Amino acid sequence: MQHGNTCLHEASWRGYSRLVKVLSNKATVDRQNNGGADPNLVNTYGDTALHTAVRYGHAGVARILLSARAAPDVQNKNK
Fold first, then answer.
1. Is residue 53 situated within a structural domain?
2. Is residue 17 part of a domain?
3. For the chain, does the N or the C end have fewer beta carbons within 10 angstroms?
4. The total number of structural domains that make up the chain
C-alpha cells in the first residue's frame, strides 16, 4: 500500500466504518493472543488510522478506533 498505510489506514481514509470495526476487532484479538496487529501503527508520515479518520471527517470511524484503544496522543511528523 502507498506511504506505508495499513488496511486500517485505508479503511479509515475512506470512512468504511464496518470494515474499520472488523479490522479493529481483529487487531484486539491479535494483540491479546499473539501481540499482533496494532491500531497505533504509523505510516511514512507518522499518521495512525485515527489521524486519517479525523483528517477526513469520519467521526464514526474515529469513535470505533478509540474504542479499540487507538491512542489519541500519538504525534505525527506534522506535530
1. yes
2. yes
3. C
4. 1
Residue 70 pLDDT more than 50?
Answer: yes
| DSSP codes of every residue in the chain | -GGG--HHHHHHHHT-HHHHHHHHHHHHHHHHHHS---TT---TTS--HHHHHHHTT-HHHHHHHHHTT--TT---TT-
pTM of the full structure: 0.81
Question: What is d(CA 69, CA 23) in angstroms, rounded to the nearest whole number?
Answer: 13
- Render pLDDT for 14-28 as a digit per residue (tens, 0 to 9): 999 999 988 887 765
Nearest residue to 38 (alpha-carbon basis) of 21, 24, 55, 19: 24
Full residue range of the structural domain in which residue 51 is found:
2-67
CATH code at position 25: 1.25.40.20
Residue 78 belongs to some domain of the structure: no
To which residue does cell 495499513 refer? 6
What are the tens digits of pLDDT across the range 37-48? 578 999 999 999
